[in-house]
Specification:
alpha+beta, single chain, 8 helices, two-stranded antiparallel sheet, Phosphorylase Kinase, domain 1, about 260 residues, about 45% helix
């Protein structure tokens, strides 16, 4: 097997920052490293999701209340595209918790899990064509596959008694390796996501709630996992669902 590439090379490849020679070199290495090839594909899928979610902002008309300022500014038209792209990127950062201030008081594990979980939620709940990789009808196979990739056995919670059916799941890259994302949907089309990844136990035993812009995440650590259930619900509705998930996942075992 050829030498594994560093994350800087992989991110540069995904972001289109390499020349043709650089792309050829990365693609040759990826052909011999299927794990890294999967990470790259998942990052590319996330980028596609972000573009579908935020690119329409570029075509929105100028709000009337901003027109006087726009007319007074001779350089406004030149700056419009850049400003809107920055605004879209900032919206994602805030949705993912990148602002940082609202995570004060959290353990470092909970803060990181919250950021990753909310970012994944924002991207994938908006995807109507391919929100998951494995459908919910293949629950057992999905649980086996994702447990193996995360290195610990875990159950796939059932929220049907609360009106949420399992849409399916997918594998995602995480700060420390791989993560699992399960998606649920109710009869109104409202979606919840459960984000699970390996995480050290640094004291975050009970549920903590973090969120903004209409999305809330209940975050906790459980065995070898950091977990977050995210959705557009108030705390009084999300908390009992999160506790159901906690109970059903049970004690995970390292494999």
């Amino acid at each position: 097997m050829s030498e594994r590439l560093g994350d800087d090379d992989l991110h540069a490849y995904v972001d289109g920052l390499l020349d043709q020679d650089g792309r050829d070199r990365v693609e040759a290495r990826l052909a011999d490293n299927p794990d890294q090839a999967l990470r790259v594909r998942l990052w590319q899928d996330q980028n596609d999701g972000l573009r579908r979610l935020f690119d329409p902002v570029l075509d929105e008309p100028i709000p009337p209340r901003l027109l006087p300022a726009a007319i007074r500014s001779h350089t406004w038209q030149k700056r419009r595209l850049t400003a809107l792209r920055v605004a879209a990127a900032l919206a994602l950062v805030l949705a993912g918790g990148g602002g940082g201030w609202w995570l004060r008081g959290q353990s470092s594990t909970e803060a990181q899990v919250a950021r990753e979980a909310l970012a994944a939620h924002v991207v994938y709940v908006a995807d109507q064509r391919r929100p998951v990789e494995v459908p919910g009808s293949e629950r057992d196979q999905m649980a086996t596959w994702l447990s193996k990739r995360l290195g610990a056995k875990m159950n796939v919670p059932d929220l049907s008694a609360s009106g949420y059916q399992l849409v399916g799941g997918r594998l995602l890259p995480a700060e420390n390796g791989a993560a699992a994302l399960y998606m649920y949907e109710n009869s109104l089309g409202q979606r919840l996501t459960l984000y699970v990844r390996r995480a050290p136990d640094d004291g975050g035993k009970d549920l903590r709630f973090q969120g903004r812009d209409g999305t809330l995440a209940g975050v906790w650590t459980q065995g070898p996992f950091g977990c977050a259930l995210s959705g557009p619900l108030p705390r009084e509705d999300l908390e009992p669902l999160a506790r159901q998930v906690w109970k059903q996942m049970g004690a995970a075992r390292s494999s």
